UniProtKB/TrEMBL annotation, chain A:
Annotated region described as Disordered, given as residue ranges: 18-49, 94-113
Name of the protein in question: 14520_t:CDS:1
InterPro entries cross-referenced by the UniProt entry: GID4/10-like
GO biological process assignments: negative regulation of gluconeogenesis; proteasome-mediated ubiquitin-dependent protein catabolic process; protein catabolic process in the vacuole; protein targeting to vacuole
GO cellular component: GID complex; vacuole
TrEMBL record, chain B:
Native species: Funneliformis geosporum
Major location category of this protein: cytoplasm
Entry protein name: 12797_t:CDS:1
Entries under SMART domains matching the protein: ARM
Alphabetical keyword list: Cytoplasm, Nucleus, Repeat
Pfam families: Arm (PF00514)
Signal peptide segment: none
Top-level taxon of the source organism: Eukaryota
Subcellular location: Cytoplasm; Nucleus
A GO BP entry: proteasome-mediated ubiquitin-dependent protein catabolic process
A GO-annotated cellular component: GID complex
From TrEMBL, chain C:
CTLH domain span: 71-128
Pfam families in UniProt: CTLH, LisH
PROSITE patterns: CTLH (PS50897), LISH (PS50896)
Domain of life: Eukaryota
Name the UniProt record assigns to this protein: 19858_t:CDS:1
Length: 353, 664, 248
């Protein structure tokens, strides 16, 4: 989530008119979904003021680099308002899928020319980056025989006690402002994981923000996450307004990667052993909030247009996360620890019938 | 009605002149065939015992008389269950079985077989007589059209017809597993597979049907059928695939059904040929269209790949159509009411199957916009439709996203809850299974269900005589207390009572024990207050005894796992709670040994118990004492030896545990 | 980049025209197996019940009928019985042939009984007709309510003396007998695992349809008369062709 009061509200809120203040929880959920659906305008084209993450739209690009139209994926009602707003992307709609993961082709269309407007952080050019990413992703399909690197198709993400349904975590989310006179904004966060499937690399949970500045309630959102298991999901996001460069910038922030330079990360994935070692200590994920559960977006004063890069430490369940949203202040940090209400760690469980 | 001539005919049956008897028999035959009213009339005139007598007399009876008598008996059997009961009551079955013996006149064999087929169509008819003497062997021999040495074309065709009848009788006589075995042992498989190649569609359909029944709920036999050698060079699968692509839709359906049951080793033809054929059959009319969804549901029910393939086809929109529209229906023997009920039910089951294992499938079903119809179907007059609606909901509720959005929007909780009190146990059971998912902490419907009296109703169902229903009820309660606040946990236990839970932990059904232990685990989770409640509810002694019994005397892995979690959760409590465990040496010893269990999940929990027992957050004296005791019992040593465990999660816990040990 | 003129093909509003000679040549290039032809014809004879023709044809062309010829005779006898108004005889014969047919086809049985009633009425035997209706048809209506409507229609025959003005007069037409006979014939064929529809009429239907479809794209000499098989050219000059495949 992100506090939207710093920037123009129109760009971040979903249409507010549909919701009455007396509606109960369920209606809110529905209303949220409706809101999301009425906004099918191609987002990035509209967010043209100073947004430099390209004038392309990765949202509708499948892994072959081909654009599929929004309509093909999911029929949406016609927009009733002329709000321009960040369309929240449902991963089920943009999963470049209807193919099993084993059939999915791994590739990324060379968009070298389109990246030219991106800021360059280091000597790696965008085209080099995308070429390399493409190359490495393709390599993942073949057996590698150099330097004892393991064939990543056999890579299997081990489970962690902390990443399972029923685990709760508490901590804070920090907004680090660039202006020195504004104090850091920070609010408490509680996250509960409600569903984990190592086979599909899926996680689902709820995130609760406490003492949010503009809201009297806590604000609860529903999020779905993907595990970076190199079978279902990879380091490269390919959606949600991200790009390999953005991905790299964020992954680098984690203590797991901090000492590595970009070149070795790019070259190293997905075949190098040491990356697999990193997965021995951590599990990497992306979490995307989909809707507000107990309040409206406007009431909360928050936006959930972006997503989190997440890292959980296997040894003690500590979670580190960075929120990304092209129109938000970058690198808001999420810091969580497993919630202890007793003298130890207890585990409850459910099963779907 | 002038029944004089009919009474006259019955009297003439007693004539000593066979010609008169034959004439009377034909008279009767031509009046009763197709005519229920006349059948009833003649039965009232006590004609059946007279017919049976023709088979029992030892003197040479004209074969024509017996043939016509057999035909007449067969026709009576078409008149419904009461007629068949009459026939069986007068002991007609055994004599008819004697008639199919191979030395008899082929026309008599055919007539008797026809009669038996009609009799066995009735589900209440006793089928055991076939398995006595040589009757089964005779039947199987008759499956071969050459067995009776037909010479003319007419005889050949009659032989094939007899083979068809024999196959149908076999299909109707394998209700139980034992019967299946007996028929298979008598050599039915090769004979039936060969009949598949005879070229006459009715006989082929009968053979397919028989094979499908022979491997019903019997995958071993399915495999055996597929591996049977036929007289031609083709394998049974190839033969079936030919028939699956036949020009007659009925043949295609029956062949697809047979192949769906006799799968054996999975092979590509199932996805590439059988599945698309079934989907296309949804375009046909009448009984074919009605049954195709049922076969489709059966085919894909446990198989994710097939479900994905079904999603890629256009099955879902077609099936959705059957659910949402009142379908123009010819009346069929399958659905005499003709309201399209059976079609709707089968379509709902197929949709439930398609969405049972994958989110893709669930999404497709939701997009087909049938959820309102599913809700409506929950109050349908037909219990089959109500149950199918529940199955559909159950499949959809396995997606948390859909559960929280589409199902909530459709207001599914109230109608579903009502079905817990349905007159049909099937419906109750399926509704309860679905409810398991709706009472989870993250389900917006949980509160409503509790307000409707969910806890009370579920506890009531926990005491049901039906085991599956009981299991689903305790499962739902377990899910209900997952992550629940203390008030909810207390509310549940107030109704369920700790005594009942204790009984369930020792239930005869292991599945139920598992759920009950999981319930206990969830109760003792998270807060000290909750653990304390458990201690109050069960008393420390009972609680520990239950735990010790289960831990030390059971080997079932699921049970062990749940018990260890119970211990683990208790071990996160206060001093008293931790001591309760520490004081039980047997429990500790068990845990020590489970640390070396082959199942990594069990090793992980065992490690967590150690971690929680040696929890050093406050560095109090008591925690130091605990650590010492654990060390003395050999825990530290054991943990050290697990440093190179295969499982990563175990290794992480080992590190934490060693770290805690090292602080004392 | 595509050449301009290639783009132009297919967008012309002019249909291509095939001359008579071209067409005849194309036709003669098509190879039809004589054996297939014979099977087609045999199929027609067998299903329609022309036993003598089937037998003779079988001897002459060396093709055995798909079923035993006697059964063709059986069906012929049954069909004739109905055509002559002897429904009772037809019922007895079909019960001899296969007693299951009428027990498993309530609709067919009803139509046969209905036909019997029609015959009574046709012969003016009104008293018998009424008795028959009560004994035999009323129970059918009780057993299967979906027949009641047709039953009432049939009873309406009794209401009108002058059948020419009766709204249900069509029931007395020979075509009604034909319908009943065909329904029975089809049921017998099905029970014998035979197809109930001969292939030949379907092929002719295909031919007519195909010609219509093709005509939308090109102009060619059409077969306008299926019996004479004359090829009529698009500009209406008649052409007698030797190579047409339906010999007169």
């Amino acid at each position: 989530m992100f506090a939207a009061n710093d920037l123009e509200s129109e760009f971040y809120y979903t249409s507010p008119d549909l919701i009455s203040s007396e509606s109960d929880l369920e209606e809110n959920n529905n209303a949220q979904e409706e809101d999301l659906e009425t906004g099918n305008i191609d987002t990035v084209d509209d967010l043209s003021n100073g947004r430099h993450y390209g004038d392309y739209n990765t949202i509708n690009m499948d892994l072959d680099g081909e654009y599929t139209s929004d309509e093909e994926q999911r029929p949406r009602p016609t927009p009733t308002t002329s709000h321009t707003f960040q369309r929240l992307v449902d991963p089920f709609a943009t999963r470049h899928h209807h193919r099993s993961s084993s059939q999915r082709s791994h590739g990324f269309s060379p968009l070298g020319t389109r990246f030219s407007s991106l800021r360059r952080q280091n000597a790696i050019t965008s085209s080099f980056l995308t070429q390399h990413v493409k190359n490495n992703n393709e390599l993942a399909k073949q057996a590698i025989s150099d330097n004892g690197s393991k064939d990543l198709r056999q890579f299997h993400l081990p489970e962690s006690s902390f990443l399972r349904a029923g685990m709760s975590f508490t901590g804070t989310q920090n907004l680090m402002n660039s202006q020195p006179q504004q104090r850091d904004e920070e609010w408490e966060v509680k996250v509960t994981i409600h569903y984990v499937d190592y086979k599909t690399g899926t996680v689902i949970g709820l995130m609760e923000a406490l003492n949010v500045p503009n809201s009297s309630n806590t604000v609860v959102t529903y999020w779905e996450g993907e595990m970076i298991d190199f079978v279902n999901h990879f380091l490269w996001t390919d959606k949600w307004n991200s790009s390999p460069e953005i991905d790299l910038q964020h992954w680098k922030k984690f203590e797991a990667f901090r000492h590595m330079d970009v070149r070795s990360i790019t070259r190293g994935t997905p075949t190098r052993e040491w990356f697999q070692e990193a997965c021995q200590k951590y599990i990497f994920m992306r979490w995307k909030e989909h809707y507000f559960v107990n309040v409206t977006a406007q009431e909360s004063g928050l936006t959930i247009a972006g997503f989190y890069y997440i890292c959980i430490r296997r040894s003690d369940g500590a979670i580190e996360g960075y929120y990304f949203d092209p129109v938000s202040t970058p690198y808001q940090k999420l810091t969580l620890k497993p919630l202890l209400e007793g003298n130890g760690i207890s585990f409850c469980d459910y099963s779907l019938n | 009605m002038n029944s004089l001539k009919h009474e006259q005919a019955v009297i003439e049956l007693d004539s000593s002149d066979p010609a008169v008897r034959v004439k009377a028999l034909r008279f009767i035959k031509n009046h009763i065939i197709g005519n229920k009213t006349k059948k009833d009339l003649y039965i009232r005139l006590h004609v059946i015992p007279k017919l049976v007598k023709f088979f029992k007399s030892k003197d040479t009876v004209d074969s024509q008389v017996q043939i016509q008598a057999a035909i007449v008996l067969g026709s009576f059997a078409y008149g419904g269950e009461e007629n068949v009961t009459e026939i069986v009551k007068h002991e007609a079955v055994k004599p008819l079985l004697e008639c199919i013996s191979l030395q008899n006149d082929p026309r008599l064999i055919e007539a008797a077989a026809r009669a038996l087929k009609a009799i066995y169509k009735c589900p209440t008819a006793d089928k055991n007589d076939i398995f006595v003497d040589y009757h089964l062997r005779d039947l199987i021999t008759l499956l071969n059209p050459d067995a009776l040495n037909p010479k003319t074309d007419r005889e050949r065709i009659a032989s094939i017809h007899t083979a068809e009848l024999a196959a149908t009788i076999i299909a109707r006589c394998c209700d139980t597993n034992e019967q299946q075995i007996q028929i298979a042992t008598a050599g039915a498989f090769p004979a039936l597979v060969n009949l598949l190649t005879c070229g006459f569609s009715k006989a082929q359909e009968a053979a397919l049907d028989a094979l499908a029944y022979l491997c019903r709920e019997n995958p071993e036999f399915g495999k055996a059928i597929v591996e049977t050698k036929s007289d031609t060079s083709d394998s049974p699968v190839k033969i079936m695939l030919n028939l699956i692509q036949d020009k007659s839709p009925t043949m295609r359906l029956i062949a697809a059904k047979c192949r769906a049951k006799a799968i054996g080793e999975y092979s590509d033809d199932v996805t590439l040929i059988v599945l698309p054929t079934l989907v296309k059959l949804l375009d046909e009319k009448g009984p074919v269209r009605e049954e195709a969804p049922h076969v489709l549901a059966y085919l894909i029910r446990d198989n994710e790949e097939l479900q994905k393939a079904a999603c890629d086809s256009d099955a879902v929109p077609k099936l959705a159509d059957f659910v949402t529209h009142v379908v123009d229906q010819e009346s069929s023997y399958y659905d005499p009411v003709g309201d399209g009920d059976k079609l709707k039910e089968n379509a709902l089951m197929a949709l439930a199957a398609i969405s049972s294992l994958t989110d893709d499938g669930r999404k497709l079903v939701v997009e087909a916009k049938i959820i309102p119809h599913i809700v409506a179907a929950m109050s349908h007059r037909s219990y089959g439709i109500r149950a199918a609606a529940c199955q559909c909901t159950r499949s959809l509720s396995r997606s948390i996203n859909i559960l929280r959005t589409s199902l909530v929007d459709a207001g599914i909780a109230t109608p579903l809850f009502k079905l817990l009190s349905d007159e049909s146990t099937d419906v109750q059971t399926t509704a309860c299974a679905t409810l398991c998912n709706l009472v989870l902490d993250f389900s917006p419907m949980k509160r409503m269900i509790m307000e409707l009296g969910g806890i009370e109703k579920l506890v009531e169902l926990v005491h049901s005589p039906d085991n599956t229903l009981r299991l689903n009820a305790i499962w739902a309660l377990k899910n209900l207390v997952y992550q629940a606040e203390s008030e909810i946990k207390e509310a549940v236990m107030k109704v369920l009572t700790y005594q009942t839970m204790e009984n369930l932990i020792s239930d005869q059904e292991i599945d139920i024990q598992e759920q009950a232990l999981n319930l206990l685990r969830n109760l003792a989770c998270t807060r000290q207050h909750d653990i304390e409640e458990v201690f109050k509810g069960l008393s420390e002694d009972s609680l520990m005894t239950v735990i010790e019994t289960k831990l030390c005397w059971w080997t079932n892995e699921e049970i062990i796992k749940q018990v260890l979690y119970v211990i683990n959760n208790i071990a996160t409590g206060n001093e008293r709670h931790k001591s309760a465990i520490m004081n039980r040496t047997n429990i500790l010893k068990s845990i020590l040994s489970y640390m070396g269990h082959t199942n990594p999940e069990i090793r992980v929990v065992a490690m967590w118990v150690v971690i929680n027992l040696s929890w050093m957050e406050d560095k109090s004296a008591s925690s130091q004492v605990r650590v010492q005791k654990l060390r003395e019992m050999g825990f530290e040593e054991k943990v050290k030896n697990m440093t190179n465990d295969d499982n990563l999660d175990v290794r992480e816990r080992v590190k934490t545990a060693l770290n805690q040990f090292s602080q004392v | 980049m595509v050449e301009y003129k290639e783009l132009f093909v297919g967008t012309s509003s002019q249909k291509k025209v095939v001359t008579r000679d071209e067409w005849v040549k194309k036709l003669s290039d098509v190879k039809i197996d004589k054996n297939d032809l014979n099977k087609l014809i045999m199929n027609y004879f067998v299903i329609e019940g022309y036993k003598d023709a089937a037998e003779t044809f079988s001897q002459e062309c060396g093709l055995s009928p798909s079923i035993d010829v006697d059964s063709i005779q059986d069906r012929m006898n049954i069909r004739n019985a109905i055509q002559n108004g002897n429904v009772e005889e037809a019922i007895e014969r079909v019960n001899d042939l296969n007693p299951e047919i009428l027990d498993t086809n309530p609709k067919l049985y009803f139509h046969l009984q209905q036909q019997r009633l029609i015959e009574y009425i046709r012969e003016g035997k009104i008293a018998e007709a009424l008795e028959f209706a009560q004994d035999e048809l009323a129970p059918r209506g009780e057993e299967n309510p979906e027949f009641l409507e047709e039953l009432e229609r049939t009873m309406a025959l009794l209401a009108f003396d002058d059948t020419n003005v009766s709204p249900v007069g069509d029931l007395l037409h020979p075509s009604q007998r034909q319908r009943t006979a065909s329904e029975l014939n089809a049921a017998i064929l099905t029970s014998q695992s035979q197809e109930k529809d001969p292939k030949l009429p379907n092929m002719l239907k295909m031919l007519v349809w195909a010609q219509d479809e093709l005509e939308e794209k090109i102009l060619f000499p059409k077969l306008k008369n299926l019996i004479t098989a004359e090829l009529v050219e698009s500009n209406n000059t008649t052409v007698n062709s030797e190579s047409n495949f339906l010999s007169t």
